[in-house]
UniProtKB/TrEMBL annotation:
The organism's taxonomic lineage, starting at the top: Eukaryota, Viridiplantae, Streptophyta, Embryophyta, Tracheophyta
Protein name, as recorded: Beta-D-xylosidase 6
Residues spanning the signal sequence: 1-25
GO-annotated biological processes: arabinan catabolic process; xylan catabolic process
InterPro entries: BXL (IPR044993), Fn3-like (IPR026891), GH (IPR017853), Glyco_hydro_3_C (IPR002772), Glyco_hydro_3_C_sf (IPR036881), Glyco_hydro_3_N (IPR001764), Glyco_hydro_3_N_sf (IPR036962), Ig-like_fold (IPR013783)
Molecular-function GO terms, alphabetical: alpha-L-arabinofuranosidase activity; xylan 1,4-beta-xylosidase activity
Length: 745
């Protein structure tokens, strides 16, 4: 997509719209009524764009050449119009699939044969598993259900997911939709999601993932390898600089984050003129957006103003053609112009492929791997289920099947509350809400909660966040528990017979420092949000699953809220008492750090192999090397990455063994960081360069290795935006391992 012109304004979301395609299409005869489809014989099947033997671009060019200007403009909306004279039906581009098929977009409906779809844990919780194969399995399962719903006319082929924003500020209402605050993790998650969701192969297979816990994978048939066809189309959204909803006088519609290239989310093109006042007329707005690389406008602004923009000479028909070629190319790759859908290889999919037992087990596995144990004083957990006489479960979400899901959710298959999950293990359970709801603005229900807590042998309290606190168009102002929740937790802990089990819901970080040091609170568990949270939580509490999740974001103290959300700087600036953002640059105190998480067992790390020295000179042209030394007075503290001609020659392996010291099976997330010893202005405190989740038998040993590319993993962007590779010593860090690798000049 073009990066010209360079704009100094912010469209609140960024969609890679050249990756997406239509929604309303057709089920086959076995699944429901036949809906219109393109290239239908005998009158509309002879066009070149219907010829599947031709290259994709040739077919797209042919289709665009047959459209009138008015017809072209009508394709620039998410609700694209039909072209009856060519036999092309209308298309709805907007469907959602963030962590399961969602009903937010008009392309998805649960008012048909399919009444529900598998709802996976919110993305921030799945990301906490730090497991690439799990991420891919989840995306693949969502894709199968999407395709099955498409076959019965209840979903499209274009899905606006994943959300790849960095969780930059802990108050952001949509942080729970993201994979967290680390750019490498966000990138890895997006890669796994998009590849699996778009599918390069489809066949049911019982292929186990590399750690053998039996995740099912689904892929496109082998004949798809020879071309560029897609099963579905994913759309990476909110590309950058979007992590503010409403904060003070700023909203996502008027805040200027100073970014570059732009594509459109819903109503975003209108925002250019109506909210940001960047342009003087609506015609200037649609021209600016289109020429910046926008392929489609979610909304009607382009439809209403594009013709007058052309008449005023601000847009050419060729500008529109560029966008349409991108759009129709993806439609062609999805098979929308291949004629009779009954011949499509996905014709066997139907309602029976939605909410399958296999997918619900996968959803449970994602929650198991993501849940994070934050505190476990004196190994208070797991509890012995055979030794428990009674259990009290307290909290406004304890008996709810809606554990704070964000906006992108559909109808879950079989939602179960935390109380229901615990009832599978303990017969004698007491329940009290304690608060009327999550805002907890009243203490009227405290007495019942305290009474219940006194009756039971063990007490679990469920507190945290839901949509009233964090969602699209709503940020938090405080990092503390809402309303009187903190007082409820403290009061219940004080009267409980044994230390309290404190369960936190929601996606955003919470300042629970009051509970971290309280001896009356034995354990703290973060479960995020998920339709079957009770099952995974119960398994963990009673030792049927050993927790291994790690936090994908920093948990800041309440004092961080003094920092304006509108300050986009990542790096710390001591001159103005600015502490920085995310674990890479933040210098302040933290409740829990990025990558933190406990297990019921312990692990010992041992470095098996890694180099101690790398020679930079061998990777740089001799004449360029001499010039660099001369220009920098032979004091070569760093090189620009683009000056290194052969980065591959610098790559090396780091091999680590991990020993499970306990009597219980466990999974360990191995995180590998790097840090330059030289103090450069703006250099990160540390940065993640690799991660792997490994599963280890009791007293067993496992090995893992990471390939380190110094040009990528040991470099960083300086204050001018240049990617530099410091010379001298770098520390490779993983748990207790600190190994120095020196880049010599």
């Amino acid at each position: 997509m073009s990066t010209q012109p360079r704009f100094r304004f912010f469209l609140y979301t960024f969609h890679f719209l050249h990756l997406i395609t239509c929604t309303y299409c057709y089920p086959d005869q076995k699944s429901g009524p036949q809906l219109p489809y393109a290239c239908r014989p005998p009158h509309h099947s002879s066009y070149p764009f219907c010829n599947s033997s031709l290259p994709t671009k040739t077919r797209a060019l042919s289709l665009v050449s047959l459209l009138t200007l008015e017809e072209k403009i009508q394709q620039l909306s998410n609700n694209a119009s039909a072209v009856p004279r060519l036999g092309i039906p209308p298309y709805e581009w907007w469907s959602e699939s963030l962590h399961g098929i969602a009903s937010n977009g008009p392309g998805v409906s649960f008012n048909g044969t399919v009444k529900a779809a598998t709802s996976f844990p919110q993305v921030i919780l799945t990301a906490a598993a730090f497991n690439r194969s799990l991420w891919a399995a989840v995306a693949s399962a969502i894709a199968v259900e999407a395709k099955a719903m498409h076959r019965v006319g209840q979903a499209g082929l274009t899905f606006w997911a994943p959300n790849i924003n960095i969780f930059r500020d802990p108050r952001w209402g949509r942080g729970q939709e993201t994979p967290g605050e680390d750019p490498m993790v966000a990138s890895a998650y997006a890669i796994e999601y998009v590849r699996a969701f778009q599918g390069r192969h489809y066949r049911s297979s019982a292929r186990r993932d590399r750690y053998n816990y039996g995740l099912q994978r689904r892929v496109l048939s082998d004949d798809y390898d020879a071309d560029d066809r897609l099963m579905l189309s994913a759309c990476c959204k909110h590309f950058t600089a979007y992590d503010l909803e409403k904060w003070g006088q700023f909203t996502r519609y008027n805040f200027n984050a100073v970014v570059r290239y732009i594509t459109s989310d819903c109503d975003a093109v209108a925002t250019i003129y109506e909210d940001q006042k960047y342009t003087r007329t609506p015609e200037d707005a649609v021209a600016a957006a289109l020429k910046a690389g926008t392929d489609i406008n979610c909304g009607t602004y382009m439809l209403r103003h594009m013709m007058s923009a052309i008449e005023q000479g601000k847009v050419s028909e060729e500008d529109i053609d560029r966008a349409l070629i991108n759009l129709f190319s993806v439609q062609i790759r999805l098979g929308l112009f291949d004629g009779e859908p009954a011949r499509n290889q996905f014709r066997e999919l139907g309602p029976e492929d939605v909410c399958t037992l296999e997918n619900r087990k996968l959803s449970l596995e994602a929650a198991r791997q993501g849940i994070v144990l934050l505190k476990n004083e004196q190994k208070f957990l797991p509890l012995d289920v055979h030794a428990i006489s009674s259990l009290a479960v307290i909290g406004p979400l304890a008996n709810s099947t809606n554990l704070g899901f964000c906006c992108f959710v559909g109808v879950p298959c079989n939602p179960r509350s935390i109380v229901e999950g615990l009832q599978e293990y303990v017969n004698n359970i007491y329940h009290a809400a304690g608060c009327p709801d999550i805002p907890c603005n009243s203490t009227n229900d405290f007495a019942e909660a305290l009474y219940v807590a006194k009756q039971a042998e063990y007490v679990i309290i469920v507190a945290g966040l839901d949509l009233s606190q964090e969602t699209e168009d709503h940020d938090r102002y405080s990092l503390l528990l809402p309303g009187h929740q903190m007082a409820l937790v403290t009061a219940v802990a004080a009267v409980s017979r044994k230390p309290l089990i404190f369960v936190l819901t929601g996606g955003g970080p919470i300042d629970v420092s009051f509970a971290v040091g309280d001896p009356c609170i034995g354990s703290i568990i973060w479960i995020g949000s998920w339709e079957m949270g009770g099952k995974a939580l119960s398994e963990m509490i009673f030792g049927h699953y050993n927790p291994g999740g790690r936090l994908p974001m920093t948990w800041y103290p309440e004092s961080f809220t003094s920092i304006p959300m509108s300050d986009m700087n990542m790096r710390a600036d001591p001159s103005r008492n600015y502490p920085g953002r995310t674990y890479r640059f933040y210098l302040g105190e933290r409740i829990y750090g990025f990558g933190y998480g406990l297990s019921y067992t312990s692990f010992t790390y041992k470095l098996l192999s890694a180099p101690t020295k790398l020679s930079l000179k061998e990777s740089i042209n001799g004449r360029r090397w001499s010039n660099m030394l001369h220009q920098r007075s032979h004091n070569l503290e760093y090189v620009h990455v683009d000056e290194v001609l052969d980065c591959s020659s610098l790559k090396f392996q780091v091999q680590i063994s991990i020993t499970n010291n306990g009597d219980i099976y466990g999974s360990e997330v191995v995180l590998l960081f790097s840090k330059a010893l030289k103090n450069f202005k703006g250099s990160p405190e540390r940065q993640l360069i690799g991660f792997e989740r490994i599963h280890i038998l009791p007293h067993g040993i496992a090995e893992t290795s990471f390939q380190v590319d110094p040009c990528e993993h040991l470099s960083f962007a300086d204050e001018h935006g240049n990617r530099i590779l410091p010379t001298g010593d770098h520390i490779i860090i993983s748990e207790n391992i600190e190994h120095v690798v020196s880049i010599e000049t």
